[in-house]
Specification:
about 450 residues, mainly alpha, about 70% helix, globular
């Protein structure tokens, strides 16, 4: 036998044990490593929370731009400061106490007196969580916390616009601490934390009541205690227009909110691990978009008919009202259902804004009609398409949450007013909060107006 044949035979004989070892190792890995069927739902649902969460976080930019565009130029910097500050406060307070109040675990804080530890999130998943362990839960705890936090921050953003142009910065931020750390988590726990409203059959898919109407009720309480802006309502009963500084910014803010709402409603499916779940997310996206579009068109047509001219601010708020209206039940309606639900929201805004003015309730950006009134409509209409719900239970849930948020907010506003005042001085209000509160202006090269 030639030498090279002998060497080849020797090499083959040497490799045989290695091949056997490799086969055994592959079998062990196959037994230990989970399949995608096992960890796929965990991965996909975690991604849904993360993507939905950063889309809802982008809504903070939308609120900031909307409010910056709808307030007068002398107050723009203050509104921008409030928006970034409230988001940051919400992030800390929801971690500190809010998440634990909202999701109390096996105990129910209302019925059992269970509050749990002060810190809801003491640790997240360990770094490099083993894939084999990933199938134990339906999604990452960190992603769930991140997603839910964004809803808490949104509630505070709603209050900011209503009280613009006359509230002091620090009392507003202190109220934000109470709202995001306690008021919102407690009322949200009644439904999303497995509380008494959930057991009663109340349904609010993504928060027409729990987020939007709650923010609207907190804003209404603040507006009543704070009072209207100087010169807003003349002695003869006239409503004095106070146009915003930049409708381009307001329009940009509306489109940003529209985009973020896909995360708001779509992420509230809370699952993406099956074909059915992902299909439902797509359905939610389509219905959400349809409701926004029909709300805008309804406001567009109605302002033309009512006033003889289209009012852009009403159209912007019409789109937002359409979004709020579909938020309580974005999954079940047909596209036509989403269309008429959103359109009614747009109509609500056109009539509710002047109604507030007749009541001398000064809402700078129209947040109360958009979030509170349209939130009620969206909550009420859920039983039309969603089985197992009733109009009575929907009204009960809205009334309970509204009463709780309004009364507690009213008490907090009165306490803040008594302790040091919540309103800037008349001189500061006339000259603008930017200089009085911050000493800087958003548009320093232009005359204030």
């Amino acid at each position: 036998m030639k030498l090279h044949n002998i060497l080849a035979l020797g090499a083959a004989l040497a490799v045989l044990p290695l091949a056997g070892f490799a086969q055994e190792a592959a079998e062990v890995v196959e037994e230990v490593a989970p399949t995608f069927d096992e960890i796929g739902p965990y991965i996909m649902t975690t991604l849904l929370f993360l993507i939905g969460g950063f889309l809802v976080m982008w809504m903070a930019a939308g609120f900031a731009m909307l409010e910056a565009g709808l307030v007068r130029s002398k107050n723009v910097t203050t509104q921008l400061t409030k928006n970034i500050a409230l988001f940051s406060i919400a992030a800390i307070m929801y971690w500190l106490v809010g998440f634990n109040l909202m999701y109390p675990g096996d105990g129910n804080w209302l019925s059992d007196g269970y509050l749990g530890p002060l810190f809801a999130i003491t640790s997240l998943e360990p770094v490099g969580l083993a894939a084999a362990d990933a199938s134990l839960d339906y999604a990452s705890v960190a992603s769930d916390f991140f997603f839910q936090l964004m809803f808490c921050a949104t509630t505070a953003s709603i209050v900011s616009g209503t009280l613009a142009e006359r509230i002091r910065l620090w009392p507003f931020l202190f109220f934000t601490v109470i709202l995001t750390g306690f008021i919102y988590p407690i009322e949200a726990s009644w439904q999303w934390g497995g509380g008494w409203l959930s057991e009663a059959g109340f349904s609010d898919f993504a928060g027409s009541t729990l987020v939007h109407a709650a923010g609207g009720f907190a804003a209404l309480a603040g507006a009543l205690v704070l009072g209207p802006r100087i010169g807003k309502y003349a002695r003869d009963g006239r409503v004095v227009p106070m146009p915003g500084s930049n409708l381009a910014l307001a329009t940009l803010g509306t489109f940003i909110l529209w985009l973020g709402w896909f995360g708001f409603n779509g992420g509230s499916q809370l699952a993406a691990g099956t074909v059915g779940d992902i299909t439902d997310v797509g359905r939610i996206f389509a219905n959400t978009n349809m409701a926004a579009a029909s709300g805008a068109v309804a406001a567009l047509i109605l302002t033309q008919v009512t006033y003889g001219k289209v009012d852009l601010t009403m159209v912007l708020n019409g789109a937002l009202a359409g979004l709020v209206s579909i938020t309580a039940g974005p999954l079940d309606p047909t596209l036509f259902g989403a269309l008429w639900i959103g359109a009614v929201g747009g109509v609500i805004v056109v009539f509710a804004v002047p109604l507030l003015d007749r009541l001398k309730i000064d809402d700078v950006v129209g947040a109360i009609p958009v979030h509170l009134v349209a939130g009620f409509w969206g909550t009420l209409v859920v039983p039309v398409y969603t089985e197992g719900t009733s109009f009575g239970t929907q009204i009960l849930g809205f009334a309970a949450i509204g009463a709780f948020v309004f009364v507690v907010s009213l008490v907090v506003w009165f306490i803040l007013k008594a302790l040091g005042g919540i309103r800037v001085s008349e001189e500061a209000e006339i000259n603008g909060l930017d200089m009085a509160e911050l000493g800087m202006e958003a548009y320093p090269e232009f005359a204030r107006g």
